[in-house]
Amino acid sequence: MKVNNLRKQMDDRIIINQINFELYDNEIVGLIGRNGSGKTTLFRTLAGDYLPEAGDILIDDVSIYQEVSKKGEIFYIDELDNFLKTYNLKKINGFYRAAYPMFNQDLYLQLMKENQLPDHLSYRRMSKGMQGLYQMILAISSSAKYLLLDEPFDGLDVIIRKKVIGMLLGHIAGEHGRCALIASHNLKELEDIIDRALLLKGKTIIRDYRLESMRENARKLQLVFKTKKIPDVVKENSKLLTLQGRVITAVFERFTPDLAAALREQDPLLMEELPLSLEDLFEANLSREGFIQ
């Protein structure tokens, strides 16, 4: 999937603008942004629930607006406007079999049996955890290539969460050639399963991190200098996490041997590397205090 210069506005207010990214086979991508940053609007636009004011969404170089059948390769359940709530699982299954031509009914029945979900159950009477589990079963069974998952682990207990994550990982990797785009507030949980992270801020994607590359190139350092004056080399090459007295904790996204040498030339009293997490990158890039002034 290729997203080109996507823009969506509502009531004359631009919600997302100049959104550009690609999704590739066999990967799980995290969509990260603060509350109100436009994540749900982006999902609804990608799924075709909203028509954008500008831009395009291409699957195999074909616009989903020119060939409507391409929308069958995208799976999305809108939790805020979920029509499933009034039906039992048997009827919901029928809807999705009709909506997705490649729906894998055998796999669906297998997963339902493995997870002890009878089809007479009413969706609205299921616990939030069981609803999340059932949504993942629908997503996987749909055979859609692109799964858009908005807070899929929210409210799940530990056992159900492990089931849902295991199911997702098992059906994204390998020969299936599928991709999942996940929005979640639980960054620690995301970090354990995603290959890339897209950071949404100011109505657009400001960063596209490949986690393997990030771990190789970025560093989180704690620094203390002789005075409270922050050296220019720190200001120009880092994003601030915390500043307490003379103790600076910052993220250096492009940490090189030359940069390390330049920091040592400032004769720091302390220069210590700390474990770097996805949450650190989120905080450094998306918080208002993210840059050293």
What does this structure look like?
There is one protein chain. By secondary structure, this protein is an alpha/beta fold. It has 2 domains: 2-212, Rossmann fold, CATH 3.40.50.300; 218-286, Alpha-Beta Plaits. The chain is built from 10 helices and 14 strands. The protein has helices spanning 39-46, 89-99, 105-114, 128-141, 158-172, 187-191, 211-217, 232-237, 257-264, 278-286, and strands spanning 2-10, 13-22, 27-33, 54-59, 62-63, 74-76, 146-150, 179-183, 196-201, 204-210, 219-224, 239-244, 247-252, 270-274. Strands 6-7-8-3-9-10 form a 6-stranded mixed beta sheet, with helices on both faces. A 4-stranded antiparallel beta sheet has the order 2-1-4-5, with helices on one face. Strands 12-13-11-14 form a 4-stranded antiparallel beta sheet. The longest helix has 15 residues, at 158-172. The two termini are 38 Å apart.
Write the layout of secondary structure elements.
Blueprint: E1 2-10, E2 13-22, E3 27-33, H1 39-46, E4 54-59, E5 62-63, E6 74-76, H2 89-99, H3 105-114, H4 128-141, E7 146-150, H5 158-172, E8 179-183, H6 187-191, E9 196-201, E10 204-210, H7 211-217, E11 219-224, H8 232-237, E12 239-244, E13 247-252, H9 257-264, E14 270-274, H10 278-286
Parallel strand pairs: 3-8, 3-9, 6-7, 7-8
Antiparallel strand pairs: 1-2, 1-4, 4-5, 9-10, 11-13, 11-14, 12-13
